[in-house]
Amino acid sequence: MNTDVFLIGSGQTRFGEWWEKGIRDLMYEAIDGALESAPCTALDIDTVIVANMIAERTNAQAHLGALASSLLPHRPPALRVESACASGAVALHTACALLESGRAKTVLVLGVEKMTDVPPAEVSTALMGAADSEKDAPCGLTFPGIFGLVAQRYMFEYGLTREQLNTVSAAHHRNAVANPFAQFRAEIPAEKISQSPKVADPLCLLDCSPISDGAAACILSTAFESDMKLAASQLASDAVSLTERESITSFPATKKAMEKALEEADTDRSSISHIEVHDCFSIAAVINVEDLGFAEPGRGIELYEQADPVPTINASGGLKACGHPVAATGIKQLIDVSKQLRNSGNRWGLSHNFGGACASCGIHILEHIHV
Amino acid sequence: MNTDVFLIGSGQTRFGEWWEKGIRDLMYEAIDGALESAPCTALDIDTVIVANMIAERTNAQAHLGALASSLLPHRPPALRVESACASGAVALHTACALLESGRAKTVLVLGVEKMTDVPPAEVSTALMGAADSEKDAPCGLTFPGIFGLVAQRYMFEYGLTREQLNTVSAAHHRNAVANPFAQFRAEIPAEKISQSPKVADPLCLLDCSPISDGAAACILSTAFESDMKLAASQLASDAVSLTERESITSFPATKKAMEKALEEADTDRSSISHIEVHDCFSIAAVINVEDLGFAEPGRGIELYEQADPVPTINASGGLKACGHPVAATGIKQLIDVSKQLRNSGNRWGLSHNFGGACASCGIHILEHIHV
Lengths: 371, 371
Fold this sequence. Notes:
Two copies of one chain form a homodimer. The first copy, chain A, has 13 helices and twelve strands. By secondary structure, chain A is of the alpha/beta class. In chain A, the strands form three sheets. In chain A, strands 1-7-4-2-3 form a five-stranded mixed β-sheet. The model of chain A has no long low-confidence stretch (mean pLDDT 97). Chains A and B meet through helix 2, helix 3, strand 3, helix 4 and strand 8 of A and helix 2, helix 3, strand 3, helix 4 and strand 8 of B. Strand 3 (78-82) of chain A pairs antiparallel with strand 3 (78-82) of chain B, so a sheet runs across the interface.
């Protein structure tokens, strides 16, 4: 970062099925929480960036930048960004650029998704917009199908067993018990994961992150300070279609973004104490910790087999147990990392958010200062 | 601008009904044109920003940043931005911030929309996402309806006649004859405008910009120079719902963005020789020239009643005659302003792009240097 950008406030709704709340209500609740925790007032917000993926289909609502702006008394300039399930990270990145450019001093970054008002089939179609609609979707693939293929291939290449994979969702559910904002706060024994209904072989229902409503908001600022400084914000892209990939058991966009993020933060991987990774499906979590460099290829599962892995992985409960209102996730991950750093007193934490089958990836490194 | 940002290349498809082309084909054609005209190669592009509003509904395709990135050999980081019909301007603004922050050196900004593959009713519903889905849409309003109300009220307040309003679309069609990229290149006598089928009284079919396919691309750079420098990039927001407005015959977001843009460019209104304004409906053009300060309230039509207005207004043909693939429009406007400045040898030009009923507005001022 060429300027000090501080995370000065944050708020979120609990993720879940909020049938009695509209998209505006969810946004308002997250904004309110963020302002409540920040040293600034609403009038200090000079730009609003909204992350959203599917409201055009599920809520007939585009133009969410202006809509969120109109929840503030002075209606500051606003825009919406989207990069499928990485929309949250991309919004944070856009905010960093606006702050570093000097165009903004205090930015509200808000991720929101209201997914449960339409039938699940409609949500699946909308989410499939993250894939290639000319090359992959016409084959009948859905995202559980795509990650089913990924898991099949990973098991073939590395010998991962179904029983081993169970440890991923089990760990995420165990972690979520302590998180009041998580959609599912029940411990689930590992063996129950593979006993849940099959969705896309070998993936079962409990390998999949749920459909959720929710919003999460961060206030980033160069004008106000806090103990949480953004040390790196990096994006990377890859081919959207699986047919253009060399491998489906490793995601180069994560590797590229991670390399650039470590360089930008001027730190090393071993200094990072807490990570939140994008576990849209259990197999993705395994691949992510490998691509981030915390495990060798094929050995990511070993981190999940440890009781206290270093770094901590998805201590919030991850997408699986917290819920996954897609564009809110990347922002909620950063909030969770900040909480973990404050609790542990450690210095470095990282959030990893991807879209599609990691056709876009955003990584943020947070530095806890004055420790 | 706190850094010199140059427009170093641009390209666009002709806007129209391109049933034989997909969204990827349109993007490719615009990118190809932009690279062809630029002093850089594809490999110099370090970030891609895609403006798109409705592809999630009309093409089942989100994630257009990554999709566009994968059309380049090195798949640079990418994101999509949206602010309804102002998406193009918002994408240019985001590019400016990335360039000024130093995060990017050469950015491809691409607007695309593929609107004619689905029935018009579906397009109308998708476009209505630019309005407030909780407050305005449930009343049965569509955008022609919203601007029909605006026109009714404007006529009531200022005595504008239906015959006077005819001059707007007639001028835009006359201008488009010379523009090879315009969807409609036929002159239409003024009296024919109000003889076309009534859409939303007093607006007729020929008061309304069409449904179009198309893409437009600009390459903005701090690493390469050209004779076209961005002098200002400003956004402003307003309430999305009409029910939260004090007036519907003037759009404060235009005024706010214009004031900031003139200040940023350090120039005055009278120096500007060419403007492209957002004439989604004829009445909008009249209001825009007033809000931009080129005419007094109620007297915008007088500029259209002159044979050679100063500044020139929508010399390209505007949205009415060029077509309006919504997110491509703001980028195509900047390209047109650059062409007009090169032709005239003048120094200052301006593009004005709005979303919804101007709930978001983006203004860019271009400076033609070495004149």
